[in-house]
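Summary for the steering committee. The consortium agreed at its last meeting that each partner would contribute one worked example illustrating the joint modelling workflow. Our contribution is presented below. We chose a case with several input lines so that the handling of multiple components could be demonstrated. No manual editing was applied between input and output; the record is shown as generated.
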Amino acid sequence: MNHDHTPTQFEEFYRQEARAVYRFVYSRVGNHADALEVVQESFLALYRLKPGGEGGDCPDRALLFRLARNRAIDLLRRRRTRDAFGQEAATGNVLPFRIAEPRTPEDALLEKEREQLAAAALAGLSERDRECLALRRSGLNYREIASALNVNPTSVGQLINRALRRFADAYEALLGKKGTDEKAGKTRGE
Amino acid sequence: MKKPEKPEESELLAYLDEELAPERQAEIRRMLAASWELRAQLARIERRVERYIEATAFQSSGEPPDVDDLWRDFSGRLGR
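What follows is the complete predicted structure of the assembly.
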């Protein structure tokens, strides 16, 4: 789809992509209200683009994710500035991720531990690594990811592979450390 | 006949993602059929993908709203 779309085409495109872009943005901003705002602003910006405007020949899907990514970055930047001044975040849920409803107390504990490990492993990655993984997970192909991140398409495979390996290494290391700590705790009779 | 070049890890990931040119995709498929080592390498990459998906599954518990609701909200903004 190019930029000179009809309203019907745009609605079709919106319905096709809205949930995927929401998931991507949610993984970056961590709460519903901000994710919704970023998604709708990005679609609005895309809708208002004139043919031949921003994005050039970029397919709409990649451009949509690029617009969403840039808006998410702006939002995170504003949030950091606001937090630096000690102000409360504007929305209620500012946890990095929403925690799923637990089934049993044991499940809840295990789930919480896994989430903490994964969040720590993700936090150790660069912004670029996290974005690469989140975009791929959102279903974008390498060409679209290259366009969204403004990088050379030939480098995308390496970027994703490196990010994946860094995540797996960090996660395994944290898992190993947790196991060692638990063993030491048992030995001490804790 | 020239021996096909052994794929690097990132090329194997691209193979899994079906991002390679059809000829190279087919070439790697043949190499995988012939080499246990390469298959083990591919399995390691798949395990990393699984690990990432499993470990970050909680991120998708931020289930997107219904697309009709999203569109209604968006149409309202368009009209403003």
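DSSP finds four helices and no strands in chain B. The CA atoms of residues 13 and 45 of chain B lie 7 Å apart.
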